[in-house]
Write the structure tokens for this entry.
Amino acid sequence: MEKKQNRLYMPQVFFCLLALLLTGSALASEDVLRWQLDSAGGIVWKVRDRLPHSDHIEMSGQQISVVLRYGVDSAGAFTLDRSLVWPMLRFKPNKTGSHLNRHFNVDVMDLIQVNGMKPQQERVEKIILDGKMEVYSSYSVGKGRKMEKNVLSCRRVCFPSSIQPAYCEEYVLKNSGKENLTLEVPVFKLEYDTDAEKGVYGSYRINTTLSNPGIYTLSPGGSLKLDVVFSARKIGESVLMLNVEAEKQMREALIREWWTSLVLETPDPVLNRMFAFAKLRGAESIYKTKGGFMHGPGGEAYYAAIWANDQAEYINPFFPFLGYETGNASAFNSFMHFARFMNPAYKPIPSSIISEGTGIWHGAGDRGDGAMIAYGAARYALACGDREKAEKLWPLIEWCLEFCKRKLTDEGVVASDSDELEKRFPAGKANLCTSSLYYDALHSAVFLGKALGKPAKVLQQYAQEADLLEKNIENYFGAKVEGFDTYRYYKENDVLRAWICIPLTVGIYNRTEGTAAALFSPRLWTNDGLLTQAGTSTYWDRSTLYALRGVIAAGKADEGIDYLKYYSSRRLLGEHVPYAIEAWPEGSQRHLSAESGLYCRIYTEGFFGIRPTGLKSFVMTPRLPQKWDYMRLKKIKAFDSEFDVEITRKAGKMEVSIYQHDRVLQRKTIRPGDSLAVRLK
């Protein structure tokens, strides 16, 4: 009995210690962070020591995605393996991952002769990530039997085309020495044809070309620009003739659009920069399919398809705030695809619509997908502020709410076959996540229904069902688990789970203290965020991001901020950068995209506490950490409007200012924890 009591109560002791020490450890970690904030808006790795080091990053355009596995070896030379994915060039059988994917690890610099020899002894000086990858290197060049060091500099720029099925690299070679250099650039072209019998659209042709072959003399200070293009197309389609400089400018323009919309300003530059990168990764992973724009998770596996969790639940409610037209189009399109599967028998909507909208995946059964879709569609419709879209989404929301209602158990919680982890971990016959999402969806439906003029009787019923469900969630899931007054994830659950954070994200705060303590205890919190289940080694960033949002929204911003700062520094500036990741050990920490939407929602729904209540209205419950005197969110595009929010500290209270059309729409001083109702013009 004594050992059991120690096991139960020691986590709370450790939590207290960790809370005291975390800030110091997080700050200390900055001394060993590999990357730094770049003054131009990206991040930079100034290569000096701690070699070799390798990493990977995903970048996407509407018709291609690339995972760059890059690094610097022990001698200081750059290494690069390009994994190129063409999501709409599909193979039989036309399943989720049946797309064209090829690896290319050719070193372009190995193809070039300088003074009759291959450039030698590469030394990488720095690598910059800013939506592109820029690599700055120097080479030694042979002169007779000697080597002249650092006389040839090279700047590589790597990026996907924004709208074409192509990936581009730009090489700028410069003579940094005092004598002329002779460069020989070969005619270089690779061409592959795939098996026509295996392709959904027949054979596909992959092309790689190097521009500007010839012999060049570079005088001291002179430079030469070379372009490499990797592309693919259906046989019979015309060859792509790309202007790489124009493609780079288009990519940079898109990044500026994302980075100058929904601008976060806080006293913490790392959080501001991580937020900017999260917007980029969340917005870029949208593919132009024959089934319309589809936001896809990525990771070399999940394209031209949508999921009820990644898209409907995680990122779609965020897109209205960013105001990215293609993002909003992809969100609405995803809900319309799910709506195709509404049926009078209330059989489950598939978890995923795959293969450009031509197929489905439902391999884990009902994962609570109806609750995910209702939750996301209702929040999206409200935040979007478009009445016509909202009316079109209303039948889907109603259907999903009715589906969930029909799945209620005798205890009044929602039954499902699994949850979004798809039986990787036990979820019982009814799990906390599904019921919590259904609860939030009911509330959103009340707000949306009022805005659309739906029958008061229907909306009153939704409100009553939400009130009853909140009680049932407490009665069924509320429990002491491992010494913490929190939630059991399912009826038989007796170990801590990361998803105990979900009620906090939907405004259920009656177990805030115990839940926050459990989440940040050593049983769940690790150097890489939250474990999925205590006592295991698996973590998913989505759990950490939900938890941070929930804890902050529940009023514990002063506790959450230290963990957020630690997490953000590690992801943005650590060993694997610059985005939120999927999972470990599964997926090798892929840069799936919807997690980045969840990161942004820590701020919109956590710190700023924005809860949509109408097509032009919301309630704010801001959570300003004691360490901050201000926080701003500028150029918010939600509710079919553009507005700014500023929170400043004022004599122990907060002054909330809402700006619209360059004027003060509303200004009020409130106490911490108070809410403010806002109606936009």
